[in-house]
Amino acid sequence: MQLGLIGLGAMGGSMAKRLGRDHRVVVYDLDAEAVRSAVAAAAVPAAWFGLLIAVPAVLVADGWEPWQVGTLLVPSALVAMVVPRLTGPMLSRIGPSRSLAVSASSASVALLVAAFGVGLDHVTVIAVAVVLVTFAFLLGQPALSAAVGQAVPAEVRGVALGVATLVFLTGGSVGSAVVGGVGDTVGMGVALLVLAALPLLGLLAL
What we know:
Layout: E1 2-6, H1 10-19, E2 24-28, H2 32-61, H3 66-72, H4 74-94, H5 96-120, H6 123-151, H7 157-186, H8 188-205
Parallel strand pairs: 1-2
Helix pairs in contact: 2-5, 2-6, 2-7, 2-8, 4-5, 4-6, 5-6, 5-8, 6-7, 7-8
């Protein structure tokens, strides 16, 4: 029988030795760069999902109709059509880690801009924030894939990318929770400011 183990710490190493007596064991230890990249990148969907909840909530509370909210999001949809054409050249030029840093910085700026727009009740500023966070998200995901793909051996790349993507998208639930929970308590502007700290903390992981 062939068994696989991920992680060769105190417990994993002992298990691999014991199981290796009777079975063929394939092992893989976590790669520090891949873990750092996934953690740093997870703050980007936190910003994106946070804004996707915050912006409609703020605008509907101001009396906007759903179709008006959708119209405000059209510029970000146009940006979403262009950004994938830019990510490849950017990854080639500055590399995955720096691209992740650009993505995280853009996400943080987007949240700060959104908090400013919410505070001033300025729709154009809010629209700019959505465009910025869309750019951050669409750069962050391929940058994460490239960073993890370079960091791990080919035979475990698929698993590593799957785990990294799971961590990346888990950030979205964090953003939703912060906006939904903190926004009701202290206001949406403050919730966005709190969320803006996450991408900056993610930069520390790189």
